[in-house]
Amino acid sequence: MVTKEDLAKAILDLGVSMDKRHAKTEATVEKVAKLIGNISNNQGHIAEEFFYNSISANPTLNGIDYDFTDKNITRKKIWY
Fold this sequence. Notes:
This protein has a domain at 23-59. The protein is 68% helix and 5% strand. It has one helix at residues 4-57, and strands at residues 60-61, 64-65. Strand 1 (60-61) and strand 2 form a beta hairpin.
């Protein structure tokens, strides 16, 4: 026969087990999110590099001729 103490201990053990699984699942989700973010950033860099190389090789886009190309330029607009 199962006593109240046995049942209480089983419930506590289950809670501890679920907490450990939750922590492991949370860590896995964080790793996957970081990986997806890195993949997304990498694809953006590849697209930028492709566009830069294409426009450098043929500086015309939609009938517009460009005199020069710049790479990795940072611009900031100051709002007042």
